[in-house]
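Structure (tokenized):
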């Protein structure tokens, strides 16, 4: 059972209170005031725990299906494989936001994305995880926050249409996507499904078939990528948003997309407006989704 003094447990209680408040009429002042006072108390406890733990992020990963026996337990071999696949996917997604993760070899600074099991969670049965890095007391931002948020977006988008999934994986390297797909495959192959709780978000699947469908949509043969050289004219760029427009020569139309980080100063493009030139464009889309364009080189 998840510890009653853990951040995940307290966050769960706050979500339960929020649901109750939604059902209580605003004129029921006395009834609402008690719940609101409790929510304020819980929020304060979470803040204190974050200070004590050095802002370590935590999450709950809860499994259901064939490997789970109610709230009593979970098959150890499945739990070991699933947790290894999940933590490896978080490491890949995290590292990928610092530098492009190569198709093979060790993940850069893998130790920064290590996670520890801090308790069990009811869900039917699952685990409470927290980052293990001891550097958190020196940083205001967790190493795993953006990685877990990315995982949440992929889970959500993989159950939506091709457009949403294209957006979710657009800036992620193929290896990072493949690593997360491998986690889904481990879950589906063992006839299980899961729910991920992180901060105020809860995402997951209600059956094994849905996990399998999402896993299949993340396979490399469904994610189409290409690099092309286009000749034409820049129409402009929004430097802060790093979005550009480019008119392809010979009336092939206008494309818009993102300027990748390898081009440090996106504003220089505005000095090239109207000049005929060749540009290197990375094109990516999932399934039948609309292609997304990324400017890598001029």
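Design, position by position:
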């Amino acid at each position: 059972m998840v510890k009653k003094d853990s951040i995940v447990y307290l966050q769960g209680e706050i979500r339960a209170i929020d649901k109750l408040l939604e059902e209580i009429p605003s004129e029921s002042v006395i009834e609402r005031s008690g719940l609101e006072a409790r929510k304020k108390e819980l929020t304060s406890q979470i803040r204190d725990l974050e200070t004590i733990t050095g802002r370590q992020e935590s999450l709950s990963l809860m499994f259901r299906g064939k490997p789970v026996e109610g709230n009593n337990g979970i098959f150890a071999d499945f739990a070991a494989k699933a947790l290894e696949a999940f933590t490896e996917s978080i490491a890949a997604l995290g590292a990928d936001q610092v530098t492009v993760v190569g198709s093979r070899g060790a993940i850069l600074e893998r130790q920064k994305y290590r996670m520890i099991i801090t308790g069990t969670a009811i869900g039917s049965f699952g685990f409470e995880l927290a980052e293990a890095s001891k550097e958190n007391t020196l940083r205001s931002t967790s190493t795993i926050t953006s990685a877990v948020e990315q995982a949440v977006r992929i889970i959500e988008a993989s159950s939506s249409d091709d457009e949403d999934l294209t957006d979710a994986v657009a800036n992620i390297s193929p290896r990072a996507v493949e690593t997360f797909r491998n986690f889904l495959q481990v879950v589906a192959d063992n006839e299980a499904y899961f729910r991920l709780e992180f901060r105020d978000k809860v995402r997951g699947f209600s059956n094994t078939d849905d996990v399998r469908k999402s896993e299949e949509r993340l396979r490399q043969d469904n994610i189409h990528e290409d690099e092309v050289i286009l000749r034409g004219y820049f129409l402009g760029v929004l430097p802060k948003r790093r979005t550009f427009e480019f008119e392809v020569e010979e009336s092939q139309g206008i494309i818009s997309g993102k300027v990748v980080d390898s081009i440090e100063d996106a504003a220089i493009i505005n000095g090239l407006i109207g000049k005929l030139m060749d540009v290197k464009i990375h094109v990516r889309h999932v399934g039948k989704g609309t292609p997304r364009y990324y400017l890598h080189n001029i």
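Reviewer-requested clarification: The chain has three domains: 7-52, 58-218, 224-297. The domain at 224-297 is CATH 2.40.50.140 (OB fold (Dihydrolipoamide Acetyltransferase, E2P)).
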